Amino acid sequence: MPENVRTVVVKRFLMQDLERWKQSPRRRPLLLEGARQVGKTWLANEFGRTHYDNVAYVSFFDNAAMRALFAGDITIDRLIPALSIESGTRIVPENTLIVLDEVQEVPRALLSLKTFAETAPQYHVLATGSSLGIAIHPGTPFPVGKLQRVKLYPMSFLEFLYACGQQAMADMLSSQDFALIELMHDKVMTWLGYYLYVGGMPDVVRRFAETFPNADFDGIREMQNTLLSDYRDDFSKHTDSGSLGPSFTLRLNQVWDSLPAQLARENKKFIYGAVRSGGRGKDYELAIQWLKDSSLVLEVPRVSVPLKPLTAYRDGAAFKLYCLDVGLLAAMSGLDVRVLIEGDALFREFKGALIEQFVCQQLAVKLTGSPYYWSAANSSGELDFLYEEHGEIVPVEVKAGDHTQAKSLIVAVRKYGFPKAFRFSTRRYHDAGAIKDMPLYMAGIV
């Protein structure tokens, strides 16, 4: 190993979901999905390595033999010997994890999960696939009700800290020991600044962690730009050759490119006219759905009234659109690395776009799905995020810098009687009754 490069120990909290799946008496084949490069393959193999005697790993990427295998009968008696040969591993029920990687490349492999569920539940089968690839095979029926699905997001702030060797700090935040957190606030804010720049894409985090404190920020930005370029290549790969055509690829790029400007606006509601002058919903609805299906964006829908259940009050015509990762948004925005040493400037960049992105991303991991937001019909008030927890609605306000005036939150708590509300900012923890002032880094933890 080169000098000054430390060993990185990766910890993904979704591992706990995989452990519960393994022990479940009602276990069905598991589909681990998410955007490209969020760490699905690594997590599947690491789970197999640490929880099974053997891992029968089969990648479907550019694999003609597997494409031919699944083109025929997908019976267990035919599949198990072939998968054993391909993986070079003897498959023993209960003791071997079968990993079908990039399953979206062979749609009938996805369909075979139904066969495993119905006729061979003794085999532990974990398939991985990009969210987009799973969604774009209309000619192949999806095995509804025959598998379990979990979604992997980019690394959370806590996972980032663990990877960077800051286990004590991560444990402190997890414990919610606010007396100790108060003492360490400035240090944690420094690490939050790193996270806003680096983000949670595993390979990028690994590059940062391996070289810290002599972090290769130029190399990190280059990796982020390469990821963004790869995603653009996916736009063309999945659309130009089909019925959607080049004009659809153009609309995808237009929506994607508009994200920094959309989020830098004071009102972050998605505006079609900000994509292209005169743009309308019918021009871009399909492109937005495509980006959602690919897990490249997080949609935060509006609710007309902040009452439970939130799904019942969803307004399909209004929403916010965030990037999948705060570091990628920083790269798309051209954020200069020097902002890391300019005090609170980082948290005010783009009118707080980065910190709202951060909070949204952490909530998505906590909730295993995006939160909602609320705005009054007369535009007299807005709550940045809302979610349901333990049968109650939790409103969230996000404030750039240490400015914590939150009139909308105060009014909403009084009007709707929310028992708990969070106001996230760069300030320290303060419990003011129903409204709790929380440091930004506690988003997704409390």
TrEMBL record:
The keyword NAD does not apply. Pfam families: AAA_14, DUF4143. One of its GO terms (molecular function) is ATP binding. Keywords: ATP-binding, Nucleotide-binding. Residues 250-401 form the DUF4143 domain. InterPro entries: AAA_14, DUF4143, P-loop_NTPase. Residues 27-161 form the AAA domain. This is ATP-binding protein.
